[in-house]
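Take a look at the protein record below with the fold in mind.
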Amino acid sequence: MRMLNSILERKPQKITIDRLLITPDEENPQLITNQEDIERITIDHYQNVASSNNPALFTSYDNLTPFWQHIYKEKYKSPEHQSILTTTITLDELTTTIQSLPNNKAPGPTGITYEFWKHFSKPQYKLLLTFFNNILNTGFIPSAWKEALLYPIPKPEFWNYQLDKTRPIILLETLRKIFVKIITDRLNKFLSSTNALQPNNQAGIAGSSTAEIILTIQTCIDIQITQNQKFYIMVQDLSKAYDRINLDLLILAINVIIGNHLTNSFDLLNGVIQGEVISPILWVLYYDPLFEAINQTTYGGINLQAIHLMNIYDHQNDTSTHFLQKNCKLLGYLDDTTWLNSSISHLEEHLNIADEFYNFSNIKINKTKCHLLTNDQDCINKGSVEINFGPIHINVNVIGKTDNLRILGAYFNAFNNHNKLYKKLLTTTNHLIHMIKKKKITEDMIIYVINKVILPRLEYMTQHIVVPSHINNRINIILRSAFKTISGLPKNFYTAAIHTPITPNIIDFHDLQIRAKMANFYTASFNPITSDCIKILLLLSQNKFWYPRSPINIIQTFRNH
């Protein structure tokens, strides 16, 4: 890690709070240098950084509307599934968890590291086992576990002695994190085995990743363009999502999915700790009722559908025709939320439901930071479109015809015009290589940086598209040039020798693309979240080219001959 930080010029983020600049009003900023005042202001800031001035709209289940009471009604789960969460922690479970912990991580208030617990013998593990099971059975949390170290670090911009331009890093006690990780693994197993969460809200659950959302969005764009249908894809910005969680509502959301089988929550004023391993799953549970409410609506969204004709001569009267469809209204990965619709009016109806949920759940939306990706030429020409988001009218910025919308690190264009993305790939490659060439590194180091840092980054950015061969070639030329320079090879050295698998080599980006696309296709085909997208795409291809059977079988036939 130190090698990569040095090569890529990643400087550790550190600040010293020896003065503060506060702005009661923009015209009269004040510089605070008194240490007691600095400490008081700093503590007050981080205690209330995400607090809301509005009174909490949710206080109990009874003050929800009938619509939301139905959503928050507890679902039945079999005792067999619920026992996953409450059974006694075993020695194997504890040992596996401790051995899986990473090294060289910052400790909590006591200074005890993960490495300390890894050197415990199995007889000593039994003491921890008794301790953990006592917590699990009684629900009493050690008071020391409620303490943590808070380190402020600056945001990407210069912080200028303003606390608003910093974010806190929380260092928790390592023993607490081990216990919580065991509970998190159990909760993850429970959620994945029971399908308790909505299929479009699976972040942090075993087997899920950003790839499902990226594939679904690109599939919607491809099919809508092919069928000459309009689409509207809107992304929104959540402000300090974890910090604003209403703990009473979180408990209600947990009871909906799990039932009343967990110990009491930690005694927090508001929100969940972002440094806690269980926090992402708690957020997914908290956010899931919105996805259920939207999924239950019978209108709107983008309909992906395909027909498998059994009788091409009389397909209108053929009752054996196979019809496959998938409706996409809302996709979420933690606090990244993407709305999909085929009309503005239906999008507004869904946003009205969302606004009601955000209000009583204390989730703050930066409505002015919403962006819209659409192939509606009228909206593109205007540059912005007025949308009703609950009772408020907002002007949403419309992404230009040749511009990209960044979602989860991938770049989408409403007309599949990826020229700007190709330029970004080349710019990113040149920038990283420029930093590398200034360093005194070995041949093995350059191979590692190219294969493990640069190429994976480029592949992630392009996982939803096929990069043209001329762009692949330009990227390979840049990488090979850097490799030859650092390795002391002549400029006319054989290209095949550089990419040969026999000796340590740099990977050919074109070959990586082929392998990655095949792996992604295979994974998506067997993933219950994305398998329908793959089936629909295959059926549409079969109908377009009048294949007698699936394109996969056609390819296999050619291979066999």
Notes: The chain has four domains: 2-47, 74-194, 210-412, 419-525. The mean pLDDT is 84.
